[in-house]
Amino acid sequence: MTPAILVQQVHKHFGAVQALSGIDLEVAPGEFFGLLGPNGAGKTTLINILAGLTRADRGSVRVMGHDVIEDYRASRRALGVVPQELVFDPFFSVRETLRIQSGYFGLGKNDAWIDEVMHHLDLTGKADANMRSLSGGMKRRVLVAQALVHKPPVIVLDEPTAGVDVELRQGLWEFVRGLNRDGHTIVLTTHYLDEAEALCARIAMLKQGRIVALDTTSRLVNRRDSLYLKLRLSGAALPQALAARVRDSHDGVHTLRLRSYAEIERALAHVREAGAHIEELELLQPDLEDVFVQIMNPEQGGRGREERSAVSLLSPLAFPKP
Amino acid sequence: MSGFGTLLYKELLRFWKVAFQTIAAPVLTTLLYLLIFSHVMQGQARVYGAVPYTAFLVPGLVMMAVLQNAFANSSSSLIQSKITGNVIFVLLPPLSYWDFFAAYVLASVVRGMVVGVGVLLVSLGFVELSFAHPLWILAFTLCGSAVLGTLGLIAGIWAEKFDQIAAFQGFVIMPLTFLSGVFYSIHSLPVFWQNLSRFNPFFYMIDGFRYGFFGVSDIDPALSLVVAAASLLALTAFTLALLKRGYKLRH
Predict the structure, then answer these.
(1) Residue B53, pLDDT score
(2) Which residue of B has its CA nearest to A12?
(3) In sequence order, what are the residues at sequence separation of 6 or more whose Cβ sits closer than 8 angstroms to the Cβ of residue B36?
(4) Across A6-15, B63-72, B105-114, B122-131, least confident range
């Protein structure tokens, strides 16, 4: 089967900055794929190369089998991109914007589909409003609609929820999930790791222009070989035997890193033998954010942040999370 | 509608929606030139022996308006799109570089002609004009506005801020139009300036355009048309090469 996206040995530099160094990536049709990485990792550069907005120095990129340079007309027809920046044309209304965008793809009589897209994105009431008069969230929806006017099989969303309120985020994800169910391939970049964890079946992590992790979301999350035990003790100090396991310790709360569930019992035995009482106990599972932090900063090893949620793996679909 | 047709439509709609600024204002400015110059120069001079100065001036002003507005249209449209970022709306679809070029330049031609016709129609209320060779008038209008539309496109591709467009306009387009014989016949100039004018392609456009009205000109209109057409071809080839490479548009 032709991959929806095929990236082979793509290199790109801007002046002295090496933005991408040998990216290889394959996304199958119908996948919901996540592209994660810190700012400057090369996510947007990769998307821009995919969209023909940037040209790779070396390597090849295909969308639905069409080379983005040699066969750019076919590859651009197959691709819908929701850009990261909130851009709009102040001369036109929402409907004009969508009609014009549709026309660029050679689709003159496309009003039925445009109406449907506007309906799904709650834009119908603003159809004749000028783009300037819309709120940021509304402008974001128009960008999504613009990416969909030509019914592309592959849809790329570059941080579509940055600076967007909770209600719109939920609505947007529901809509994108629906597109994915209908067979569209979705590629998503986001800074919200809980979103990626909840939505994407497979994830690539980029760092300084290289792919540093590429696997299914569940395997990525489970590949963490550790869990965390948070304890507040009274009566005695933390036993010396556990000192090597401490990741973080303040306000009388100790966070211990354990390798397996079997170690919980041993740790608690040490506490009992030391004569300490347990005031508070919490078991923390690794989530994508831990994996992300571990991969991006191998020396730091993740965890130790107080605000971590203990339940992120137990209810991966319940989001947005606190 | 085709991608090209849509882009052309969008470019036309863009200037039409701000017609006060893009059509009415330039027409008024040009008429003010006409008013002031014809007042100052009244009865002072005749050009080519028989043509009153005011009548001589009108085609020059019309062509100047055509050229300046053709340049303004493509350059300001593209620089605005680049600065606001919405240029990606035309870079993401499967538009070829030919589509892109033709749509921007044709929209400039239309804007130039609309302003030109506006100036001409209002001038006819004050000045008596002959139309000796209408086809020459049309040929020079098309050619001249296409040259300036293409120059505007080059400026829009090259510039990264409004300042640079203004510089291009102020230091290249304005001197070339003002020194092209809009306000005088180059035969009234000292020899040095006469010769220098012959290196200015805008001079041929205005001189040939004027021939269409009076049937007389500083030089043979056929030669002028060849120069204008050759300029257009060279600029077109250059711009298409820029667009094909994606210069400053697709980094």
Answers:
(1) 86
(2) B251
(3) none
(4) B122-131
3-class SS string, B153-208:
HHHHHHCCCHHHHHHHHHHHHHHHHHCCCCCCCHHHCCHHHHHHHCCCHHHHHHHH
pLDDT at A252: 79
Chain A hits for B13, Cβ within 8 Å: 91-92, 96
What's residue A312's pLDDT? 35
CA B164/CA B83 separation, integer angstroms:
12
Where does chain A have alpha helices with state H?
Answer: 43-51, 72-77, 94-104, 111-120, 136-148, 166-181, 193-199, 217-222, 262-273, 288-296
Closest CA to A46 of A63, A31, A29, A30: A63
Residues of A in contact with B78 (CB under 8 A): none
Interface residue A42 vs chain B (CB under 8 A) = no
> CA dist B27 to A205, B20, B55, B60, B64, Å?
58, 10, 17, 14, 11
B92 touches chain A (CB under 8 A): yes
Which pLDDT band holds residue A72 (cuts at 50, 70, 90)? Answer: very high
The mean pLDDT value of chain B amounts to 93
CB atoms near residue A74 (< 10 Å) = 17
The tokens 């008013």 sit on which residue? B35
Chain B residue closest to A72 (CA)? B94
Contacts of B91 in chain A (CB under 8 A): 51-53
Q: Which two tokens stand for residue B78?
A: 């593209």
Query: What is the average per-residue pLDDT within A260-273?
Result: 86
What does residue B3 show for φ and ψ, rounded to 5 degrees? -60, -45
Which among B7, B14, B95 has the least Cβ separation from residue A91?
Answer: B14
Tokens encoding A243: 């000192």
Chain B residue whose CA is closest to A45: B251
What would the mean pLDDT of A226-246 be, rounded to a whole number?
84
Alpha carbon distance A168, A171 (integer Å): 5
Contact assignment for A103 to B86 by CB distance below 8 Å: no
- Region A252-280: mean pLDDT is 85
Please, are residues B1 and B95 in contact by the beta-carbon 8 Å criterion? Answer: no
Tell me the ipTM for this assembly: 0.90
Confidence at residue B144, expressed as pLDDT on a 0 to 100 scale: 96
Distance from CA of B63 to the nearest CA of A (A): 28
Asked if A204 and A26 count as a contact pair (C-beta separation under 8 A), the reply is no
pLDDT of residue A300: 55
